[in-house]
Design brief:
mainly alpha, 367 residues
């Protein structure tokens, strides 16, 4: 990978690393279009520098998700085949729930459920691309005009900072998605399956606005926008592999630091003791630091606390928005209307609870 950012090569560069009018940025090779008039200092960064930064990334890594898709398909196929071939070794008492419903086989597949997940994932490729295109313009402006410095795109530590930063802010975006009903309305689609397998990882939401907002500090701190998106793709690829019941508990040091299948099974559980836990994407240390970690005590019950009862991808994506609209229309006061939108999922005017009380208490609308 060729270096493009380094020490200033022109002594006439302005203090603070900003180039003088009409000059190339410090250490960046290539021609800068001649200026035909005065523009705000740094305005030229919005396109040429992003182009240079993008070119600094190897072509196969422009989108690791695209590179990983064949492996996603392979792992789903292998796991689904194993689910059909392996016998159900559970005791009879563990094959049904308290309500008499048959419990999914660990690592099992239901064709309609998997088809819904894969369909939602296919559409999310398009919607995520559109969200990224919109975010790129926003991040470019922040990176060009507001960032006090621009980190070198060809430095390994910039890549590491980008991935670490994305993971840190993913934790908070994910936590908000479980604590604010309006944001939960889009995230709940990912939790709607009563199965937990590799196809569940593909059950992606179609609205990525929360992550885009939470990642704004990264371009503001000088992380190249292209590397922000690269970090998100790396996170998505990693998280695909934690959506399985075929892997038990891993080596303890790994379990202490990384998000693992065991940790993420807890996150997808609708059991009271598992609600609002284990938000980490790649690292589980964020949950340990901020008090949201929960070890796996037993096999979780997956899905929403109130099942949607459909495999229709569009309804799975939108039903909670419709529920919010109904609650807002019926609410008698503005306080209650705002509570239904911005309160935690399951919030009701007569049952509002504090954060400590809410953990471990069943809710009415979520996993």
């Amino acid at each position: 990978m060729s270096g493009t950012v380094g020490r200033p090569t022109d002594s006439s560069a302005l203090p603070g690393g900003r180039p003088a009018a009409g000059q190339a940025p410090p250490g960046i090779t290539g021609q800068v279009p001649p200026r035909t008039g005065d523009v705000p200092r740094g305005g030229w960064l919005a396109v040429p520098v992003l182009h240079d930064l993008w070119q600094a990334i190897p072509e196969p890594l422009h989108d690791p998700v695209a590179l990983a898709v064949p492996f996603f398909v392979l792992f789903v196929a292998i796991e689904a085949l194993a689910a059909r071939m392996l016998e159900d070794e559970r005791p009879v008492a563990e094959r049904t729930g308290p309500d008499g419903r048959a419990l999914p086989l660990p690592g099992g597949y239901l064709t309609r459920d998997a088809a819904a997940s894969i369909s939602m994932g296919a559409v999310s490729v398009l919607t995520m691309t559109l969200w990224k295109l919109g975010a790129l313009g926003l991040y470019a402006v922040v990176f060009a005009y507001l960032a006090p410095w621009q980190l070198p795109a060809d430095a390994w530590w910039t890549w590491a900072l980008a991935i670490l930063g994305v993971d840190f802010f993913f934790y908070w975006a994910h936590r908000v998605a479980h604590r604010v009903r309006l944001v939960w309305a889009t995230h709940q689609a990912h939790h709607s399956s009563e199965y937990f397998n590799f196809s569940t990882a593909l059950r992606q939401k179609w609205n990525n606005s929360a992550e885009i907002v939470f990642w704004l500090p990264l371009p503001l701190l000088g992380v190249p926008p292209a590397l922000v998106f690269l970090g998100f793709s790396v996170s998505l690829v990693y998280q695909f592999f934690v959506h399985t019941e075929r892997v038990g508990t891993l080596w303890r040091p790994v379990e202490l630091v990384l998000n693992t299948p065991s940790h993420h099974r807890v996150h997808h559980g609708s059991d009271p003791e598992y609600l609002d836990r284990n938000y980490g994407g790649i690292l589980i240390v964020w949950d340990r630091l901020f008090g949201t970690f929960q070890p796996e005590l037993h096999r979780p019950t997956y899905g929403l606390t109130v099942p949607v009862g459909t495999f229709n991808p569009l309804r799975l994506q939108t039903h909670e928005y419709a529920a919010i609209a109904r609650d807002v229309r019926a609410a008698p006061t503005w306080r209650d209307k705002l509570g239904y939108v911005f309160g935690p999922p399951g919030w009701r005017p007569d049952t509002a609870v504090t954060e400590p009380e809410r953990h471990g208490a069943p809710e009415t609308a979520r996993a």
